[in-house]
Amino acid sequence: MLSGKVALVTGAGRGIGKAIALAFARQGADVAVSDIDGPAAESAAGEIRALGRRAIAAVGNVADPEESKRMIDQAVAELGRLDILVNNAGIRRDKLLLGMADADWDAVLAVNLKGVFNCTRAALRPMGKQRFGRIINIASIVGITGNKGQANYAASKAGVIALTKSVAKEMASRNITANAIAPGFIETDMTETLPDEYKAALLAQIPMGRMGRADEVANVAVFLASDLANYVTGHVIQVDGGMAM
Questions:
Q1: Which tens digits make up the pLDDT trace of 228-243?
Q2: Percent composition of the chain: helix, strand, coil (DSSP 3-state, to 5)
Q3: Is the pTM of this model over 0.90?
Q4: Topology given in CATH for the domain delimited by 6-235
């Protein structure tokens, strides 16, 4: 489904990002595994190579414009082109707004929103030249609904959704689509740290009665990256078990 394509996935050393990178490789894509954690990026790249695909570890901080550009340039230089960008890297600094420090706000917005801007801006240059590209941004259901104790995270993900729609409008004439995925509560290292009582309260809000899996998000990313989604742009697909329908 993705044979001959090259993808770069940020935050791909673990969790949803790694699941997406592996799913792309299984569908025939070569993958640049981007992560701030070098050993994690190289480990994921090794798993992709074991699947018979080319893979590189592109280590850097998406919050830094120069590092973002360097990772994009590295992918093009070493893998020959860039067809798909998945902006998945993200962090949380949860706290009620009255107790939230400036540093908590700034750190989350720098990675979750500015990081998407940095990588997308850099990727649009090679994609524009080849007149083809797929931008897939991992937002969150809380970017649609808001969430207590996550004002910074929710604001960053709402910004990702608005950025996605703007890029979709700007780049459609160059055959570059931009779509977002809004996962609900997915079983990852990030959600594993949530208190049990909080998890129970969340499950009560999900009609399907369970948390999602990373591969279920990855399957949607594969669709959006493939030719099956050629006429889909500016869309937000909720992968949340019906939580926010």
A1: 999 999 999 999 999 9
A2: 50, 15, 30
A3: yes
A4: Rossmann fold (3.40.50)
